[in-house]
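For reference, the entry.
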Amino acid sequence: MSRGFECGEGWFDLIDTLCASIQSYIDQENEAGNPVKQVVARQVKEKLYTLRFYYNAKEVNDPFIDGMIYFAERISEKIPQE
């Protein structure tokens, strides 16, 4: 079940860049013959002044994607949400 986006506009560029980077990685890996499942954002929100990006991680199971999301969540600590 998807809950959508629950955060301010200040993180728009960060979330947009994260999603574009994830999609680019998936496309490149799939073209190279290394199948990676599509990421589906389940919920994107603020928690304790930090971005939280919840997705179908069990289905995707890719450490590189996990790393991109972790990095974006850490960067969000330095960017005002509003």
